[in-house]
Amino acid sequence: MAINREPVTLQELQQDFINPIAPRILLQSLASLQKRSLIEKSNSFWGLQTVVMEYVTYELILKTAEEINIKNINLLNFTFSK
């Protein structure tokens, strides 16, 4: 969800995973995150809460910059390998 930065449908979210996840397991995971107020659902779209999005983006930037500095580009390769 943080990569998309906008709310997505369940189908769009499933396409973001490198390894397929069963729809039942994905829905259970989303429901668990929603109970913890980490994500929100509006109609058929799922998205991160704003504060969570900002935190994840900040951490992604820090880790990416660190990988660039040490010339070990693992996170970038994993994130954009699709």
Features:
82 residues, mainly alpha, globular
Strand content is 5-15%
Largest sheet: 2 strands, antiparallel
Q: Write down the Rg.
A: 14 Å
What series of H and E elements makes up the topology? HHEEHH
Compute the number of strand runs. Answer: 2
Computed structural class: mainly alpha
How far do the termini sit from each other? 15 Å
Provide the residue-averaged pLDDT.
84
Strand order of the largest sheet: 1-2
What sort of overall outline do the alpha carbons produce when their principal axes are compared? globular
Q: Helix tally?
A: 4
Residue stretches low in confidence (pLDDT < 50, at least 5 long) are: none
Q: Helix amount, in percent?
A: 55-70%
Question: Could you describe the 3D structure shown?
Answer:
The protein has 4 helices and 2 strands, in the order H-H-E-E-H-H. With 82 residues, the chain is mainly alpha-helical. Strands 1-2 form a two-stranded antiparallel sheet. Strand 1 (39-42) and strand 2 (45-48) form a beta hairpin. The radius of gyration is 14 Å and the shape is globular. The protein starts with 9 loop residues before the first helix and ends with a helix.
